TrEMBL record:
PANTHER family: BIFUNCTIONAL POLYMYXIN RESISTANCE PROTEIN ARNA, NAD-DEPENDENT EPIMERASE_DEHYDRATASE
Superkingdom field: Bacteria
Protein's recorded name: Putative nucleotide-sugar epimerase
Domain NAD-dependent epimerase/dehydratase: 10-238
Length: 350
């Protein structure tokens, strides 16, 4: 298959977020791309701005018509809507919902009116699948959610995906790529999952053992960059290989698990979380009760992307290079497990 033509002028929304900002830095380092525009209503941190190099930062609100003017002024041919990356750290609210929905509608409307736009890449999320006791073992891209999320970021991104698909129907000359990352972890990115796992005492739902997958922050960036450069239209799950249970993750971090009723998971977690942390919200309790595992076959065969880190390696890197300190060391856990197994063997012998 011949390599696709590299984009000439790329606009990335959400430049002040980790995923948006570092994606801008990667694209700006590519000499084949003539113009890279970083868009956000907030100015990125100084260190992130420096990393963006030759990229031009435009301070504007994507909910305003100014986004259309920027696309037209720079003859943008590729739009990356990564402003939805705000979901990694910011708690969901009515203001965030307005930002996601109104902002996405404005971006889609601007792309529809622009004759120069030929590609749109959306940073969606695996949260669109929801989580319930009736879920399949693996969610493929075409699998309908057994219980669609009614609130929170999952609901927002379901609607945003609908706007983007509507754009594709109205402008069939525009290629649409939707990337659905699994829960992102890494030593630098601040996510609600990372904040939750970093608690020294981690509340979990009594009697439940959710299966989890993780996507390393570097693989999340690489997947978005690949979506821009490879131009593979379609919808793609993106996750590291393998599965860990929540209990396994907590024990490997050396933290203490505290089983609680499901209805108390969010409020009790809030008690332990620092005010600066990314708060767990009730919309996440289903995920932490039932888990969610993605089928990544299309990621490899059609999207042509293979993550460097497995789920297990992502968790290990998060533990090794992150800021979380163990409450109970690995040797203590191994000793406890050895004693439990030895006791079980003695009972069998009796």
């Amino acid at each position: 298959m011949p390599s696709p033509e590299a984009p000439r002028s790329v606009l990335v929304t959400g430049a002040s977020t980790f995923l948006g900002g570092y994606l801008v830095a990667r694209l700006a380092a590519n000499p084949e791309i003539e113009t890279v525009l970083a868009v956000d209503s907030r100015v990125p941190r100084k260190d992130l701005l420096r990393r963006m190099g030759r990229a031009e930062f435009l301070r504007l609100d994507i909910r305003r018509p100014s986004i259309a003017k920027a696309i037209a002024s720079y003859n943008v041919d590729t739009v990356v809507h990564a402003a939805t990356s705000i979901m990694e750290a910011a708690p969901h609210s009515a203001a965030i919902k307005e930002f996601n929905l109104i902002g996405s509608m404005q971006v889609c409307a601007a792309c529809q009116r622009s004759p120069s736009v030929k590609r749109v890449v959306l940073r969606s999320t695996a949260m669109v699948y929801g989580a319930s006791s009736k879920d399949p073992s693996h969610f493929a891209e075409g699998t309908a959610a057994r219980r669609e999320p009614k609130v929170g970021y999952g609901r927002d991104l379901l609607d945003v995906e609908g706007y983007v698909r509507g754009l594709a129907r109205r402008r069939q000359d525009i290629d649409i790529t939707i990337v659905r990352p699994q829960a992102i972890l890494g030593p630098r990115i601040n996510t609600r999952m990372g904040s939750y796992l970093s608690l020294p005492i981690v509340p979990t739902v009594i009697g439940m053992e959710p299966r989890l997958q993780f996507l390393h922050e570097e693989d999340a960036l690489a997947a978005m960059e690949h979506a821009v450069l490879a131009n593979r239209p379609g919808t793609y799950n993106v996750s590291g290989d393998g599965v860990v249970t929540l209990t396994q993750a907590i024990r490997r971090l050396g933290h203490i698990q505290m089983p609680v009723p499901k209805g108390l998971l969010a409020p009790i977690t809030g008690v332990f979380q620092d005010l600066r942390s990314a708060k767990l919200r009730s919309s996440q309790t289903d995920f932490l009760t039932y888990g969610r595992v993605l089928d990544t076959t299309r990621m490899r065969t059609e999207f042509g992307f293979v993550p460097r880190y497995t789920t297990d390696q992502t968790l290990e890197d998060f533990i090794r290079r992150g800021s979380s300190s163990p409450v109970i060391g690995a040797d203590t856990w191994r000793g406890l497990e050895h004693r439990v197994v030895s006791a079980a063997h003695r009972l069998v012998e009796v």
